[in-house]
Design a protein that fits this description.
218 residues; TIM Barrel; eight-stranded parallel β-barrel; EC 5.3.1.24; amino-acid biosynthesis; aromatic amino acid biosynthesis; Aldolase_TIM; TrpF_fam
Length: 218
C-alpha cells in the first residue's frame, strides 16, 4: 500500500556558529535550536544566540532549549533571542512551560525501561504543542549521541512528536520508517569529528536532510 504524502520536519539543535545556522536554512531545515541548559556542552549565552539568529533564513524557526532554568533566565532569552518555540527538558510543569506566551515542546526521557502512556503525558502537559522523545534517561540532558528503542514509541500520540537521540545520516531513514514522527531532532549526529561540541559538519548536515527526504518518499 502506498503511504500518504508526508514531510518530516527537521530540527538541527545545539547550534554555536552563524555559518552553521545559515547552511541549515539553505538545506531546507525547519528549525534550529539554541541550548541554554546549564550543564550542556553546547550552551550559548543569550546575546550569542541573538547574534546567530540574524543568520536565520526566512521561515526557519528559532527554538530555545532549557532544562530547569529559572523563570528570569527564560524571560531574558525570550526577550533577546525572540524564539518562536520553547523546548523544556527538565522537571518543569505545564504551568511553568506555558507562562512565557510561546508554544512549547516537552522532552520525554525514553532512556528508562518503563512504558510511555500517551494519555497520562497529555494530561500532565495539556498546553504542550508537541513532545520530543529523546534517548536520555530521566534527569539527564539531551545531546548524548545515544539512540533509544524506536519500537517503544506508542501509538495514540494525540499531539505531534519528534524523535531525537543518536540520530545520524546513517540511521535517520530507518528511524522515520519505524516511528513516523512529525519531526526529527539532531545535534551530535551532524557534528564534525574532532571539533568542540556544537560545531557542525556541512556534509553530514546535507546528507542528513537527504536521508530524511528519502524516507519521506518511501
Amino acid at each position: 500500500m502506498t503511504s500518504p504524502l508526508f514531510r518530516t520536519r527537521i530540527k538541527f539543535c545545539g547550534m554555536t556558529r552563524p555559518g552553521d545556522v545559515r547552511l541549515a536554512g539553505e538545506l531546507g531545515v525547519d528549525a534550529v535550536g539554541f541550548v541554554f541548559a546549564e550543564q550542556s556542552r553546547r550552551r550559548v549565552e543569550p546575546r550569542q544566540a541573538a547574534a546567530m539568529r540574524e543568520a536565520l533564513a526566512p521561515m526557519v524557526d528559532a527554538v530555545a532549549l532549557f532544562m530547569d532554568n529559572g523563570k528570569e533566565e527564560v524571560q531574558q532569552v525570550v526577550g533577546l533571542v525572540r524564539p518562536s518555540l520553547l523546548q523544556f527538558h527538565g522537571d518543569e510543569d505545564d504551568a511553568f512551560c506555558r507562562a512565557f506566551g510561546l508554544p512549547y515542546l516537552k522532552a520525554v526521557a525514553m532512556g528508562s525501561d518503563g512504558p510511555l502512556d500517551p494519555l497520562a503525558l497529555h494530561a500532565r502537559y495539556p498546553a504542550a504543542a508537541g513532545f520530543l522523545l529523546d534517548a536520555h534517561a530521566p534527569g539527564e540532558g539531551g545531546g548524548t549521541g545515544r539512540a533509544f528503542d524506536w519500537s517503544r514509541v506508542p501509538g495514540g500520540m494525540l499531539k505531534p512528536f519528534l524523535v531525537a537521540g543518536g540520530l545520524t545520516p546513517d540511521n535517520v531513514h530507518d528511524a522515520i520508517l519505524a516511528t513516523r514522527p512529525w519531526g526529527v531532532d539532531v545535534s551530535s549526529g551532524v557534528e564534525a569529528a574532532g571539533e568542540p561540541a556544537g560545531v557542525k559538519d556541512g556534509a553530514r548536515m546535507r546528507r542528513f536532510v537527504e536521508e530524511v527526504r528519502r524516507a519521506d518518499c518511501g
